[in-house]
Automatic annotation (TrEMBL):
SMART domains hit by this protein: TPR
Annotated spans, Disordered: 273-301
Domain DUF4037: 434-536
Source lineage: Bacteria, Bacillati, Actinomycetota, Actinomycetes, Micrococcales
Protein name according to UniProt: Tetratricopeptide repeat protein
Length: 640
């Protein structure tokens, strides 16, 4: 199965809030497909997602059977002690805990922790997640002191490895859990309530900065409701519980345990579950001023993709109804250039070409017949939507006007040609043409989301650009190994020792770019897409590294550390970049950077050996290239 497509569609269903029944049907269909194709890896991926779905929707009767099958698959695949095994055991234990089987859950958590501590780096976020889940188990068992210990450990891991603590929702969620553990503690130590309220305030500030409307925010609001109720402020408690309940209803439905418990808490403080506010429109209890103003009435958390999908759902059906003969053949979505197509947009991205917009795609025949009329009908749609305004032609940036426009009606081949230079992906027997397509270009052609495509021509063309031939992919992997070896392992320490900070800085940049590309290539573009252009490379790498069974998940943290130390390493005596504390010695930062690059190389070799891409344990990556290239069938692609 196409794991990336499966996860993307599941994310879209949940993100569009299509309801738990739609998600359940999709998961059941995916599971049946994986089993029919005897795809055990695909089946394990679906089962992991299903375990989480059963837990949050309260469908506990199915949990034991799904957990048993997932654990059985681990043994069949020989993955019990791997990172995938750790993840599956955590998911199974968490679902079993929610289903009322704490004994088995504790056993699985213990196995997962033993494997995790052996296979994962000490600041790996999955370790923090494991400690968080253990804390919930101890809370269920009434051992709140032990729960606080586990949460304190999780918080230390997350804070130690976070690259943006002020917007880290995992830190915020852990703070919420820690506050709840303090409230539930029977020890009654002085100041515990005050500490819990401070932790909640910090967590809510994080959610407010991010603008997220999700189950973690619901948990934080419910905890705030509990804090207000304990202080006797029932009106404030009811407001917090009501907003939490509105979010829970959208995410999990009224039949979930989360809805039932939150509704009971709301009723206990005199609130009315039938008069709920909108989860997106109700102001957060904690407000942090934003440096960028958003349009009046606009939900600050709405991404460009969500805005586009909502615009399509509001006006798309009526638009297509004007073209009854071609309507089943019109594809709709949002793909191409623009931060919103990558899902990385935020308030700072709304300063150019942002608004409620769509791409509508037609075959050449249909475009000749109705293209102009469909464009005119699209242009006539309301420009104002949910507080956002679609920019007029003269308001757009120069690179998105006229022939370079990014939204509206397109002929399918012309759309992809405008991005890549090709109307469809080059065939595998022309690898030289693939090599001329930068990864960022391929990312722009394959990003975003397709909301509707009954004909399938658009999706098939788009998917074609994801199918990079294996010979090309392996040749690029070899190139990236060579660049990390040459720029990072060889030249960074030499340039630092020589005192040429500028050259060292550029070598570090080349190393980071090659390493980021390498991670995407070894995870395979058909499953995870391509590395985008420089602005979003680290964000894309962080997102990929957090996915289930991602290869080389630790590279992003190593790169963040290298980049953080780059100034001190390259310019140790510059008054503009003072080097405090442990880095006061000029050579210290350079040695740390060199050591981190070697650590990165070791991660690559360990991964390649585990996947049998190499039998060598040589960590100078230039010597790993022949092992990778041995699988390339096109001889001239070797040693590029």
């Amino acid at each position: 199965m196409d794991v990336a497509a499966f996860l993307a569609r599941l994310d879209a269903i949940l993100g569009a809030q299509e309801g738990p029944e739609r998600a359940a049907s999709f998961l059941d269909d995916a599971l049946a497909t994986a089993r029919a194709e005897s795809d055990r890896g695909g089946e394990l991926t679906v089962l992991n997602e299903l375990l989480g779905f059963l837990r949050v929707t309260g469908r506990h009767g199915e949990t034991a059977g799904v957990a048993d099958r997932a654990l059985e698959l681990l043994d069949e695949l020989g993955a019990a002690g791997s990172e995938a095994g750790v993840t599956t055991r955590i998911n199974a234990a968490t679902a079993l805990r929610a289903a009322g089987d704490p004994v088995r859950a504790r056993e699985l958590y213990g196995l997962a922790l033993a494997d995790a501590e052996r296979t994962l780096p000490p600041l790996d976020r999955r370790l923090a997640a494991l400690h968080n889940n253990l804390a919930l188990l101890f809370s269920d068992l009434g051992d709140h002191d032990r729960a606080r210990e586990e949460l304190t450990e999780a918080l230390a891991i997350l804070r130690g490895g976070s690259t943006d603590r002020d917007r880290d929702t995992e830190i915020a969620s852990t703070l919420v859990n820690l506050a709840l553990a303090r409230f539930a503690s029977a020890s009654g130590e002085a100041g515990e309530d005050a500490l819990a309220r401070a932790e909640l305030a910090e967590a809510l500030e994080v959610f407010d900065r991010v603008g997220a409307v999700d189950p973690h925010l619901a948990s934080a609001l419910a905890a705030l409701g509990q804090a207000e109720a304990r202080a006797g402020r029932t009106r404030e408690a009811a407001a917090a519980y009501a907003r939490a309940l509105a979010i829970v209803e959208v995410c999990f439905g009224r039949d979930s345990d989360a809805y039932r418990v939150t509704a009971q808490n709301l009723a206990a403080v005199g609130g009315d579950a039938e008069a709920l506010p909108s989860p997106a429109s109700t102001p957060s209890p904690v407000s942090t001023p934003s440096p960028v103003s958003t349009p009046s009435g606009a939900p600050s958390s709405m991404s460009g993709l969500d805005l586009s999908r909502a615009y399509w759902e509001a006006y798309g059906p009526d638009l297509l109804a004007r073209f009854p003969d071609q309507a089943p053949r019109i594809a709709v979505g949002l793909v191409g250039h623009g931060s919103e197509c990558y899902g990385f947009d935020d308030g700072l991205s709304r300063d150019h070409d942002f608004g409620p917009e769509l791409c509508l795609w037609l075959t050449a025949e249909d475009h000749d017949a109705i293209g102009a009329d469909l464009q005119a009908a699209y242009d006539a749609l309301p420009r104002e939507f949910l507080g956002f305004t679609r920019p007029s032609d003269d308001e757009r940036t120069p690179r998105s006007r006229g022939a370079n426009r990014r939204r509206g009606v397109f002929e399918i081949g012309a759309f992809f040609e405008s991005i890549t230079g090709y109307r469809e992906a080059p065939p595998a027997e022309r690898p030289h043409e693939w090599l001329m397509l930068p990864e960022a270009t391929l990312a722009a052609a394959t990003n975003g989301a397709v909301f509707r495509d009954q004909l399938g021509v658009l999706s098939a063309t788009r998917q074609g650009f994801k199918q990079m031939p294996d010979d090309v992919r392996l040749a690029l992997v070899s190139r990236r190994l060579g660049m990390i070896a040459q720029a990072g392992q060889y030249n960074v320490p030499r340039m630092i020792e020589r005192g040429d900070g500028g050259a060292a800085w550029l070598a570090i940049a080349e190393t980071a770019s090659a390493a980021a590309s390498l991670v995407f290539l070894v995870n395979h573009p058909a499953r995870v897409g391509y590395l985008p252009y420089y602005k979003w490379q680290m964000a894309a790498l962080r997102r990929l590294s957090g996915r289930l069974i991602a290869r080389l998940p630790g590279v992003v943290d190593t790169l963040e550390d290298i980049l953080r130390l780059a100034s001190a390493a390259c310019f140790p005596t510059s008054s503009a970049f003072p080097t405090p504390g442990a880095l006061a010695e000029p050579a210290a930062a350079g040695e740390l950077v060199a050591g981190l690059i070697e650590d990165l190389a070791a991660q690559v070799v360990a991964d390649f050996r585990a996947r049998r891409w190499t039998t060598s344990d040589e960590t100078f990556l230039e010597w790993q290239r022949p092992h990778v290239e041995a699988a390339i069938t096109t001889e001239w692609l070797r040693s590029l």
